[in-house]
Amino acid sequence: MALTVSQLTKFMQVQLSWEDPVTGESWEPVFMLPVALGSKLEKMPTSYQTQPVAQVLLESKVISRFHALIELVNGQLTVSDRSTNGTYLNGKWFHQSSKSFGSGETLKIGPYAITIVALSEPESEFTEVESHESSVFNPSEVVQVRGVNSRQKTPPDSGIFFEPETDLLEYRSEKKQQQNFVLPSIFSSSHVSIEDIKRTVLLSNYEEKIMQPLEGE
Q1: Residue 131 has pLDDT above 70, yes or no
Q2: What are the two backbone dihedrals, phi and then psi, of residue 2, each rounded to the nearest 5 degrees?
Q3: Interatomic CA distance for residues 179 and 14, integer angstroms
Q4: Which of 24, 54, 170, 183 maximizes the CB count within 10 A of its CB?
């Protein structure tokens, strides 16, 4: 929502929107004016004309350590270029000077195209509004956790299992130390009775138990 001059003077809150030129990630933080932009936090002011300054860190070799300052001058949004390479306002380059602009217009600082919108009230659903104190916004330190925890499946116990794809009985063992395991005789028979299967299963379960190491070994 665009504001009138009187509303701007009252609220002095802006949303900066840009897409990271490297990762493509979108950012839309909200700040109280004034806002400093640059590549080095220690070179940007923490206060300006008795007002605390929000610092926005933009990482690029072509961006000056303290590149630009966005403030309110006589009720008008104003950007002051403090850089070596200059700043673009709506595609027009200016250097070491100040330009007034309207809500919704775009600054280009190095590889960053930043749209600035004046707000009438804080947007709280997705964006945290910075308090009117000196603050720092560093996108590289913002961690977004995506996805959910997944539960790992426990591998099946050792034993004899029916394999539906081959229509055959299959012996499985999770014990790595059983390198020379000899398959039960039923695996070499063309016809197997239910009783033979039961005896083999019981025998394999018994062998698994006696192969387990004792506690303390």
Answers
A1: no
A2: -75, 150
A3: 69
A4: 54
Question: Tokens in use for 215?
Answer: 């506690």
Query: Which value, in Å, is the radius of gyration of the alpha carbons in the chain?
Result: 34
Residues 6 or more apart from 67 whose CB is under 8 A from it?
A: 37, 38, 39, 58, 81, 82, 83, 87, 109, 110
Q: Is the pTM of this model over 0.90?
A: no
Across the chain, how many H-helices and E-strands are there?
2, 17
∠ Cα 53 39 111 (to 5°): 115
For CA atoms 119, 120, 122, 126, give the dihedral sign.
Answer: negative
Distance CA 18, CA 104 (A): 12
Q: How long a stretch of residues is the chain?
A: 217
**Which range has the worst mean pLDDT, 8-17, 100-109, 195-204?**
195-204
133 within 8 A of 51, measured Cβ to Cβ: no
Structure tokens that stand for 44 in this block: 């940007």
User: Is 80 exceeded by the pLDDT of residue 69?
Assistant: yes
Residue 12 near residue 3 (C-beta atoms within 8 A): no
At 2, is the pLDDT very low, low, confident or very high (cuts 50, 70, 90)? low
- What whole-number distance in Å separates Cα of residue 160 and Cα of residue 201? 6
User: Left if phi > 0, otherwise alpha if psi is -120 to 50, otherwise beta: which for 107?
Assistant: beta
Q: H-helix or E-strand containing 201?
A: helix 194-211
